């Protein structure tokens, strides 16, 4: 705060008034302080008093997930809580909602609370804005999506390999009329899954330019509508690959509505509770969010304890689980 006051040419009390939005500060002075805050990338330290009393660490980490309501994110959160809780470290979790502005705002809030480390699922095209914190040796681990513009550990699923396995599985069961339903194209994992799926179809000698690819489906209802349109077209697919669990749910609804859930094959990316209780059971490419959570916690703890080896990406293999829907063969 002293640096902000010096740059703005005002007293520390004036800076405090601006930060706390108190009266008694002219608009000109307020703007000077805000400009200084922006220039210095100042973060309000809400824990400074307790830090002086308790030592350097806050025994807390910030966890940024796509949505804490998503089962995949929830399992990562729980695994990290268990692993870090054993060391007396609390986990502050927040939902990204795949919004770049929200990403930066939440990270700023974490930094303002002086967390000891960050575990992040990025959506912004570039994370170079994190370099000032990285250069101050704040431990960081990225999960699910690799960072761009900053070197840091990452723990990810083999998205392209898993999607290729789904394509190979459907092809092995005789399908040549496949369709791909995907998430938003600005999400790294969605692009990797599309790439893996289409490359495997191409390796089988089938044209990929005419294969139906419907993307930017970020919720169940959008996926349902897209699947209904495909399945009621003049040349409907005999098999569908849905690239994340919400897209799978929407596709399942469309198949059920049309009464073709036992005639059209479906493989989804991401496992989900009761997938084996459906009729037919849903074949999935299962990620292992609990392993991702544990490994992320381990890497963060290692960095917090002084591990200075070069950053690297850790890959958690996916697994194809056959339950029935992906084993439906095309009409003779």
Q: Can you put this structure into words, describing what you see?
A:
The protein is of the alpha/beta class. The chain has 3 domains: 2-40; 48-157 and 289-316, Rossmann fold; 159-288 and 320-327, Rossmann fold (3-Layer(aba) Sandwich), CATH 3.40.50. The protein is 42% helix and 15% strand. It contains 12 helices and 12 strands. The protein has helices at 2-8, 12-19, 27-40, 48-54, 71-85, 100-112, 131-135, 159-172, 188-203, 220-231, 245-257, 289-304; strands at 60-65, 90-95, 117-120, 140-143, 153-157, 178-181, 213-214, 239-242, 265-269, 283-286, 313-316, 319-321. A 6-stranded parallel sheet has the order 2-1-3-4-5-11, with helices on both faces. α1 (2-8) packs across α3 and α5 runs parallel beside α12. The longest helix has 16 residues, at 188-203. Residues 44-55 have low confidence and may be disordered.
CATH topology type of the largest domain: Rossmann fold
Strand order of the largest sheet: 2-1-3-4-5-11
Structural class: alpha/beta
Mean pLDDT: 89
User: How many β-strand stretches?
Assistant: 12
Under the CATH scheme, which class of the largest domain? Answer: Alpha Beta
Strand content: 15-25%
Query: What spatial form do the alpha-carbon principal axes imply?
Result: elongated
Describe the largest sheet: 6 strands, parallel
Give start-end ranges of low-pLDDT stretches. 44-55
Tally of contiguous helical segments: 12
> Helicity range of the residues?
40-55%
Radius of gyration (Å): 24 Å
């Amino acid at each position: 705060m002293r640096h902000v006051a010096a740059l703005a040419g005002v007293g520390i009390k004036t800076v405090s008034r601006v930060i706390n939005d108190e009266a008694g500060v002219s608009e000109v002075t307020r703007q000077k302080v805000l400009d200084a805050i922006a220039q210095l990338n100042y973060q309000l330290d809400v824990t400074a008093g307790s830090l002086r009393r308790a030592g350097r660490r806050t025994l807390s980490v910030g966890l940024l997930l796509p949505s804490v309501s998503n089962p995949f994110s929830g399992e990562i959160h729980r695994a990290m809580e268990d692993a870090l809780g054993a060391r007396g470290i609390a986990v502050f979790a927040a939902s990204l909602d795949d919004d770049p502005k929200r990403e930066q705002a939440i990270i700023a809030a974490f930094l303002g609370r002086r967390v000891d480390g960050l575990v992040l699922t990025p959506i912004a095209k570039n994370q170079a804005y994190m370099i000032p914190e990285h250069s101050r040796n704040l431990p960081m681990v990225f999960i699910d999506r690799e960072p761009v513009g900053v070197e840091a550990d990452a723990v990810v699923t083999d998205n392209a390999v898993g999607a290729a396995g789904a394509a190979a599985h459907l092809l092995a069961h005789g399908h040549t009329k496949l369709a791909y339903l995907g998430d938003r194209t600005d999400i790294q994992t969605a692009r990797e899954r599309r790439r893996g799926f289409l490359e495997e179809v191409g390796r089988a000698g089938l044209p990929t330019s005419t294969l139906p690819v419907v993307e930017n489906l970020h919720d169940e209802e959008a996926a349902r509508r897209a699947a209904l349109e495909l399945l009621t077209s003049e040349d409907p697919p005999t098999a569908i690959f849905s690239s994340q669990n919400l897209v799978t749910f929407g596709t399942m609804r469309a198949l059920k509505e049309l009464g073709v859930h036992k005639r059209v094959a479906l493989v989804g990316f991401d496992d989900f509770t009761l997938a084996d209780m459906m009729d037919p059971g849903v074949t999935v490419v299962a990620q292992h969010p609990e392993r991702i959570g544990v490994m992320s916690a381990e890497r963060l703890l290692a960095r917090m304890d002084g591990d200075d080896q070069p950053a690297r990406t850790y890959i958690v293999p996916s697994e194809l689980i056959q339950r029935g829907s992906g084993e439906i063969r095309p009409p003779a």
